[in-house]
Amino acid sequence: MSASHSTAATASSAASAGTADYESLAARFRPIFDRIAAGAADRERDHRLPYAEIAELTAAGFGAVRVPVADGGAGASLPQLFRLLTELAAADSNIPQALRGHFAFVEDRLVAPAQRDVWLARFVAGEIAGNSWTEVGAVKIGEVGTQVGPVAGAPAGEFRINGTKYYSTGSIFADWIDTFAQRTDNQVKVIAVVNAHQSGVTHRDDWDGFGQQTTGSGTSTFVEAVVEEENVFDFDTRFKYQTAFYQAVLLAVLAGTIAAAERDVATEVRNRTRIFSHGNADSFAADPQILQVVGEVSSQAYAARATVELAARALQDAYEGAFLGDVVEEERRNDVAELETAQAQVVLTDLATRATSNIFNALSASGVSQTKNLDRHWRNARTAANHNPWVFKARIVGDYSVNGRLPPRVWAIGQGPTPKV
């Protein structure tokens, strides 16, 4: 299934249909990307979270690239955003994933009319949002342990939120936390946007995965934390292409990781002086077999970028569909975005893990030195690819191809039924 990709904005009030020239936009951030890339391997080796790097990006307006120019942002389209995220991932794949929740919340505020201007102004001012959705413990699918609502004695319009979340990627860097919760007064599932700068909110950098180690993921805990009623939104009003959007950020992470692997293996081959007696040339840089390996990785990086671009176009169509006033067409575009990001995930999972492993075929034993830290590319690709298991996505895509069954656009994770003994 593919979309008929339109290029113009569908409504003058639509936030971003691509008013920015990409090269001019990217030029603003590439010097920062270069500085980020220079320290990426050391940050990961020493487990130093990229506080300063994210602060520099947001100060330069990176968090507001999707905000319309008229509102103080860069007016980037979704294909432009995902090209930027791919370039950033090539510098340090942890950072776009750390900002994944932020850009999703920006997208939601672009589409939803509630407090739109208030939030866009915050993004332009450099404020960023984190992500806090996954419950800790044996919570059954469909249940929400994190609770938010009014409490006796609190000022009018002031709620309290209590709960614990894991995989709260980016929240440790954030000013606001986009939190999935349930209201205590009417049991409606909501998004509570919690101010991170208060004593009732704590974060632990306790993500123990072997890759993507500096995304700031881990546990977020809310204990009687304050959240204003105006910042509690019914989940049913969330932007409809959200799961496709979240997946597309991970696609950009994978594409950028392959690009980083290509860059680093090319540098290693170019600078290597030792050769093997049974090789094919007087230098690794002239050996056709070694060049073939590097060329394959480069081609895989190209294919990955193209895949992200196609998925981003489908997302742009879904975004524009929110302003059409045609529910049937809007739903069709959202289904297309879900399917195309799923197809892309199935392809890029294999492509990225193979490419980041194959770079070692162009190197010798010295290539696995922990000092060089080249294995981080495979570890990061493998970790990013493990989000939202691709095997389920492949089955969903196949079910559409064979039976015309549309994909689910919202899903959850939780405890399964207790096995019968």
What is this structure, in a nutshell?
The protein is α+β, with helices and mostly antiparallel strands and 421 residues long. It contains 11 helices and 9 strands.
List descriptors.
single chain; 421 residues; alpha+beta; Butyryl-CoA Dehydrogenase, subunit A, domain 2; Butyryl-CoA Dehydrogenase, subunit A, domain 3; 3 domains; 11 helices
Give the arrangement of secondary structure elements:
Elements: H1 22-46, H2 51-59, H3 78-91, H4 94-98, H5 100-111, H6 116-124, E1 129-132, E2 134-135, E3 147-150, E4 158-166, E5 176-183, E6 189-195, E7 201-204, E8 219-228, E9 232-234, H7 242-271, H8 288-321, H9 327-358, H10 375-385, H11 390-403
Parallel strand pairs: 1-5, 3-5
Antiparallel strand pairs: 2-4, 3-4, 4-8, 5-6, 6-9, 7-8
Helix pairs in contact: 1-3, 3-7, 3-8, 5-6, 5-7, 7-8, 7-9, 7-10, 8-9, 9-10, 9-11
Give a structural overview.
With 421 residues, the protein is an alpha+beta fold. The chain folds into 3 domains: 22-128, Butyryl-Coa Dehydrogenase, subunit A, domain 1 (Orthogonal Bundle), CATH 1.10.540; 132-236, Beta Barrel (Butyryl-CoA Dehydrogenase, subunit A, domain 2), CATH 2.40.110.10; 242-403, Butyryl-CoA Dehydrogenase, subunit A, domain 3, CATH 1.20.140. It has helices at 22-46, 51-59, 78-91, 94-98, 100-111, 116-124, 242-271, 288-321, 327-358, 375-385, 390-403; strands at residues 129-132, 134-135, 147-150, 158-166, 176-183, 189-195, 201-204, 219-228, 232-234. Strands 1, 2, 3, 4, 5, 6, 7, 8 and 9 form a 9-stranded mixed beta sheet that branches. Strand 3 and strand 4 form a beta hairpin. Helix 9 (327-358) crosses helix 11. It starts with 21 loop residues before the first helix and ends in an 18-residue tail after the last helix. The relative contact order is 0.13. This is Monooxygenase. Residues 31-127 form the Acyl-CoA dehydrogenase/oxidase N-terminal domain. One of its GO terms (molecular function) is flavin adenine dinucleotide binding.
